[in-house]
Amino acid sequence: MRIILSTARYTEFLKEFRLADRQNAAANNETEVVYTSGNATRRYFYRAPNFELIAYDLGGGRINLVTYNHVGTLGATVGSTNFDGALLAGGGGGNQMTADLSRVVALTSEAARSSVVETAIKNVLGSAARTVNLDRFTLLFTSYKHTAKHVRYFDASGAYAPGWRPLRRDDYLRFFSDSTYTGDATTHCALVRSLADAPNREDP
After folding, report:
1. Contact criterion met (CB below 8 Å) for 24 and 33
2. Which residues, 6+ apart, have CB-to-CB distance to 55 below 8 Å?
3. What is the pTM (predicted TM-score) of this model?
4. How far apart are the first and last CA of the chain?
5. pLDDT digits 0-9 by tens, 9-24
6. Checking phi first, is residue 41 left (phi over 0); if not, alpha (psi -120 to 50) or beta?
7. Which helix (H) or strand (E) holds 5?
């Protein structure tokens, strides 16, 4: 399945991306995301379920990744031009996850998984003056599967439950405040409220 990524119609892209991942989940099929900027076209390939970036194509052929986790820091002042640059750069021709690919994953996969992330990124797209501190969202990125399982958006086998939707503020709070959570519940709940209640952006 192929869908087009346009920052001008980002909300529509995420709706299509989420639907494609759910439709592809049972067979672990792929979604191809196509991004065009100027004369350049880039392709990114995601395996279902859970929007897993597994390959990209900068125009010279598909390159399969051998590592998938976020690397380093994603950036404290990431704007729309940074996302465009990351989409164009991809993995630079290599098969390892890079900072640019991590930003691509934040823009696509992480936003598809979380309405909190989606809102933060939507606030900066199309505005050269606004930026988002992606590093503050690391906890949300790394806790997605645990949170989704806790609120029963996955069934016992790990497949999408019928009621799956992108994680919301209260989903994270339910997970982090649960008696079984072994992390710093107070700090993590406060972070979620900060990120969700006041969109993470900087205006000039």
Report:
1. no
2. 44, 45, 62, 63, 64, 65
3. 0.94
4. 40
5. 999 999 999 999 999 9
6. beta
7. strand 2-5
